[in-house]
Write a structure and sequence with these properties.
The chain is α+β, with helices and mostly antiparallel strands. It has one domain. The chain has helices at about 5-30, 110-145; strands at about 45-55, 70-80, 85-90, 100-105. The strands form 2 sheets. The protein has a two-stranded antiparallel ribbon with strand order 1-2. A two-stranded antiparallel sheet has the order 3-4. The radius of gyration is 22 Å and the shape is elongated.
Length: about 150
């Protein structure tokens, strides 16, 4: 794998983690949402990753190095949580049913924060990998200048 391919793989990981972070932030923001446009409480969303081929802009210049498989990561789908909502007795709530119960999303905002921390660290690891590759490229250029 060439150094430029390594940059593309890290960039795909950063993109996937950014998307995941946006979903997690949306989940946290809606952890108490009892009414959505679709009806009912907010449903937890989760990004599903899969291996994906990565193309980089230097493919024509480095065609010989592309013979090796070059995989990164991509979001293949967004899964909606199918668990039953949590029902709380709040008779004065505007979304209460005739028995006084309100349906709330069935997930923990604390777990979402832990996942958000994980996504942030994964994004940072990809940034670190890109910086290491950039340093290698820079040092290689310096050696050639020599």
């Amino acid at each position: 794998m060439s150094l430029f391919q390594s940059l593309s793989v890290s960039a795909s990981g950063m993109s996937a983690q950014r998307f995941r972070s946006e979903l997690l932030a949306q989940n946290i923001a809606n952890s108490e949402t009892t009414r959505t446009e679709e009806g009912g409480p907010y449903r937890h969303q989760d990004a599903v990753f899969q291996a994906a081929s990565v193309r980089h802009p230097f493919s024509s210049a480095f065609q010989s190095s592309l013979d090796a498989p070059n995989t990164g990561v991509a979001v293949s789908e967004v899964q909606l949580d199918d668990r039953e909502p949590i029902r709380r007795y709040l008779p004065g709530h505007p979304d209460a049913d005739d028995k006084g119960y309100v349906s709330f999303p069935n997930f923990s905002p604390i777990e979402e924060m832990v996942d958000l921390t994980n996504a942030s660290r994964s994004f940072g690891a990809n940034v670190t990998a890109m910086n290491a590759v950039k340093d290698m490229i820079s040092k290689s250029i310096d050696l050639v200048k020599g």
